[in-house]
Structures are given as structure tokens and as C-alpha cells.
Amino acid sequence: MVTALVGAASSGLSLTSPVLLSLVWESCELPLKISQSVAIMEVLHAMLGIVRSPVAITATQVASRLWILWGIVNLTPESTTTSVVTIGGVLNLSLVTLLTAWCLSEIIRYGFFALKEVGSQPGFMVWLRYSGFLVLYPLGVSSELAMVWLALPVIRLKGLWSIALPNPINFALSYDVVCVLAVAAYLPGFPHLFTYMLKQRKKVLGGGGGGGSAKKSV
Questions:
Q1: Is 196 annotated as catalytic?
Q2: Catalytic site residue from 29, 42, 106, 137
């Protein structure tokens, strides 16, 4: 993604350019699919007690990313990898903001755990681990919802992943309705996850928000 952005910048392309967004998707598609798909192992590790992460929280996070990747972005690249959603004329949500939020979240999280494994927990990394989400979570969730918004017209028009009547099993399914219901699940889901991280932040950093030694890894 960095290579695509640098190349686009040198060519004078803006972050909202369809050409830039397409280049970003082309450069990130394979590694993104691999890295996000193997994240299923995080849920398994939590279930087996290999790590102390809450199973429900971990499963929710992994499931939402897998759905956005495979059931939204990869399903409708003609819209999700070429368009943006502008909020208030200021914030442009796109594939770039989605990947930025996802990537920075994982760099901070895995960097924190890597340093912990070698017995080092510098204050700045502890602070990043329990403060970065204040910006990255809202950015990530809003970008995920933007992807759904861009994909819905295409899904509805083409009937993607939908089952129409009549058919031998007499069963109908409208995937666009499923997407809307999934988005509705974000309403209680995001506050729950965000509140959980706020509690962890207070537990580790205290009321002052300064760096310190992590008492519990999540």
C-alpha cells in the first residue's frame, strides 16, 4: 500500500482518485487476504487458552474484518476499490482509510506483544497499545460501514450471494438485506468493544493516561 501511495503522490494523484484506490487494492489484495484469513487462528488460540484474549471480543473483531474483506470489498471491487464516501465535506472514507486503520492497529498490537515476549515494554509502546484505538477504532468502523454503503447498490443490482424464488428448496435470501442487518449489529457491537478497550486502558494506564507496565494483555 505504501508503494502505491508513494507512486500515486509522485504522479499527482489525490487520495480520493479512483486510479489510486485501484492501485492500492492491486498491491494489497493478496497479502491482505492471507493475513486477514489466518487471523481465524486468533480465535482458536483464545478458545484454547493459549492467549488470554476474550473469545467473544476476538471472534467479533475477526468476523467483522473477514466479512468486510470477503463479503463486501472482494465481492464488489468495482465500487469499493474505486469510490469514496465523504462525510461533512471533510472526511473521505475509502479503501485507504480502511487499510490504514487495520494496518496501524495490527502494527501497534503485534509490536507490543513482540516486545513483551523479549521482556521489553517501553512506556511509549504501552501507551500506543492502549490509546491508539481512540482514533483507529472509530476510523476503522466508519470505513467498514463506508465499504458496505458503496457495495450495497451493486449487491442489490446484481443479486450477489442472493437466492431467488422459485427454486427446488423453496428458500429465498437477499444478501443486501443480510448486509443491512449486519450493519445494524454494529450499533450495539461498536460501543461494547470500545467500552471494553476504555476499561482496559484505565486499568493499564490509570486515570492519567500515561505509559506504564501493562497488567493484562488483550
A1: no
A2: 137
